[in-house]
TrEMBL record:
GO terms for biological process: transmembrane transport. It is found in: Cell membrane. SUPFAM superfamilies: MetI-like (SSF161098). PROSITE patterns: ABC_TM1 (PS50928). The chain crosses the membrane at residues 30-51, 84-114, 126-148, 154-174, 201-226, 258-279. Residues 90-280 form the ABC transmembrane type-1 domain. One of its GO terms (cellular component) is plasma membrane. This is Sugar ABC transporter permease. Keywords: Cell membrane, Membrane, Transmembrane, Transmembrane helix, Transport. Residues 1-20 are annotated as: Disordered. CDD domains: TM_PBP2. It is a multi-pass membrane protein.
Length: 295
């Protein structure tokens, strides 16, 4: 007597071609993401709680976890202090961050285009030198940079804070890598056959193709420049109009630190970055989706 093979249950037509769903791992993934988001946002929330509290609430045990109603009063104290020109420091930070970001996007994209698509003697060796500068800590060049700014007569001015960061080695390397893959050589050759010069190729072909990379680099550069503390402290400490990070250090200095005032200023200095991250994040996603559709 021969054994018959078991008959398989026929699958429904609606189930054919349907991807298997891992319902067991979805809630764990969302739970982990919510936990990471809560841990990441808690310092910002705690800063806001202290910024809206009184001195008694700050020193209370157990500490308060509910925002108070003194935020506007604390913020008014920060902006009206005579020894700290906080409003001017925010304007200075915006000027420095904007100029450095615009300059970095232009020079790094132009240099990245040259290293990726142009042929000139010593190109690869010069790119190695640019990459090697990333391994040198910034602290090693502070003394020489300070002396150079003094020779130029820029010490204690915003020019000394802006000039050393007009272009970055990371930005050049990042733009080079992106342009190598995003801009085909055939497209550049066809533009040259039509009579386009190098700057025309850069402006009309390269820049539209690298908008997602420009958005990412611009966002990272603006945030890093806004949060820069060491070099502005060396150059602008003791001046009348420093940057926001130096002004915050002045708020936190002294024998007695008023934390509600310090964190109110810190929250005010963080709000522009939060707005930029929200707006910039949308632009980055939009640029990536446009590039995926075009490809």
């Amino acid at each position: 007597m021969t054994a018959t093979a078991p008959r398989l249950k026929p699958r429904r037509r609606a189930e054919i071609g349907r991807a298997p769903q891992d319902t067991g791992g979805n809630w764990r993934t969302y739970l982990a993401l919510v936990a990471v988001l809560a841990l990441s946002a808690f310092p910002l929330y705690w800063m806001f709680v202290i910024a809206t509290s009184t001195d008694e609430a700050v020193s209370s045990i157990p500490p308060t976890v509910v925002p108070g109603g003194e935020f506007m009063n604390n913020l008014r104290e920060v902006f009206t202090l005579q020894q700290v020109y906080f409003a001017a420091s925010l304007i200075n930070s915006f000027i420095v961050a904007f100029v450095v970001t615009a300059s970095t996007l232009f020079f790094c994209s132009l240099a990245g285009f040259a290293f990726a698509k142009l042929r000139f003697p010593g190109r690869d060796k010069l790119m190695i030198v640019v990459i090697l500068t990333l391994t040198v800590p910034n602290q090693l060049g502070i003394v020489a940079l300070y002396i150079l700014m003094g020779k130029l007569g820029w010490n204690g001015t915003l020019l000394s804070v802006i000039a050393p960061f007009l272009v970055s080695a990371f930005g050049v390397f990042y733009m080079r890598q992106f342009i190598m893959h995003a801009v085909p050589d055939e497209l550049i050759e066809s533009a040259r056959m039509d009579g386009a010069l190098t700057m025309r190729v850069y402006w009309s072909i390269v820049l539209p193709a690298i908008r997602p990379a420009l958005a990412v680099l611009g966002l990272l550069t603006f945030v890093a420049t806004w949060n820069e503390f060491q070099w502005p402290l060396i150059q602008l400490n003791g001046t009348e109009f420093p940057t926001s990070m130096v002004a915050l250090s002045d708020l936190a200095s002294g024998n007695y630190v008023i934390y509600r005032r310090v964190l109110a200023g810190a929250f005010a200095a963080t709000v522009p970055l939060l707005v930029l991250l929200v707006l910039g994040g949308r632009q980055i996603v939009r640029g990536i989706m446009e590039g995926a559709v075009k490809s």
